[in-house]
Amino acid sequence: MSYLSYLECANCTSRYNADEIQTLCTKCQRPLLACYDLETASQEWDRDSLQERAPNLWRYRELLPVRKREFALTLGEGFTPIFHAHRLGESIGMSHLFIKDESLNPTGSFKARGLCMAVSRAYELGINEVVVPSAGNAAGAMAAYAAVAGMKAHVFIPETAPYPFRQECEALGAEVNLIDGLITDCGKIAKAKADKYNWFPVSTLKEPYRIEGKKTMGYELGEQFNWKLPDVIIYPTGGGTGLVGMWKAFDELEKLGWIDSHRPRMVSVQAEGCAPIPRAFHNGDTFAQPWQEAHTIAAGLCVPSAVGDFIMLKILRESKGTAVAIADDTLVEAQMRMSRKEGIFACPEGGATLAALEVLLKNQWVKPDERVVLFNTGTGLKYPSET
Ligand SMILES: *Cc1c(COP(=O)(O)O)cnc(C)c1O
Description:
By secondary structure, the chain is α/β, with parallel strands linked by helices. The chain is built from 13 helices and 13 strands. The chain folds into 3 domains: 4-71; 82-108 and 210-382, Rossmann fold; 111-201, Rossmann fold. The protein has helices spanning 38-44, 86-91, 111-124, 137-149, 163-171, 183-197, 210-214, 216-224, 241-256, 276-283, 309-318, 328-342, 348-362; strands at residues 4-9, 15-16, 32-36, 82-84, 97-101, 129-133, 152-158, 175-179, 200-201, 232-236, 265-271, 322-326, 372-376. The radius of gyration is 19 Å and the shape is globular. The N and C termini lie far apart (45 Å).
């Protein structure tokens, strides 16, 4: 089922056995990435085979890390629609504007992709207790897949997280821990507990497989655009698994011979109250300094410091992309406009991509006839209006 061959450190390129439980590189503490035998895959796997497959992310199973079908957990995640946003596009003078609507995933966000993969692979490797620090969406997604696998789930979320996130985790059977602090504080506490009780941590990029789930967004863009990638992708960035994952997917697709070398310019959007990536990008830094006193209503973007910062920054530069920070009131206004014009109740993070596009149009960094994809990463339903 899978051409997975080994894991490689994104920083020092040390190799690790993919069939043992791995977290970070033991030499430099940076993320490990899954490597596949793309040579053999390109000879044996044809993209036409996709036509007969179910509309979920396991349609790309050859380049996903789970080896045996019985461990491939599914709730119907992935293969979300991509809409040509005619009315919204027209209102801002764009002819080829698209929205990839990730709110249709199980548990209402694209976190389902990453957690589907991380939990499935953990299940295959014999793990039965998982833990995650989360702003909310990752916790719900992990709880859902842990429930499917019959695993015990522990989640650590900020006590300021909107109530629906907590309610969802409880309904799905997770043990919920409310933390007085940000996701980085949740991360520290979750790690201490994980070490103590031997729970497996599935924090962003601290295990190798969430990114494998997220990369399927890149495969889908290929497939849905008939193997001609768009010109610009605007992505609301927290830990960055989506950016890193899609870029990895494009490399893999090219090695398979399914796409040519045309790459989208990748744009990272964050909130003005927590913008370590735009700051580091515009300063020309290799790593991002942690953001002090982070705050934004777009909970998924409230990540003051990300382990994958250096990978994201490299991708933004390699792709000739850029990074934009948006004020909370601007992103909320854009969220409402995206929702009204396109019939999608977008999340604030999704709204931020529209606001970023408007900045880039004004700067003429984006041309009105370019093919631009906005990611609506989750549903607006989980954010109560008083926030
Ligand atoms: C987690 C999250 C993000 C950020 O995603 P990363 O891949 O971690 O950068 C954006 N939007 C929503 C709704 C999220 O839950």
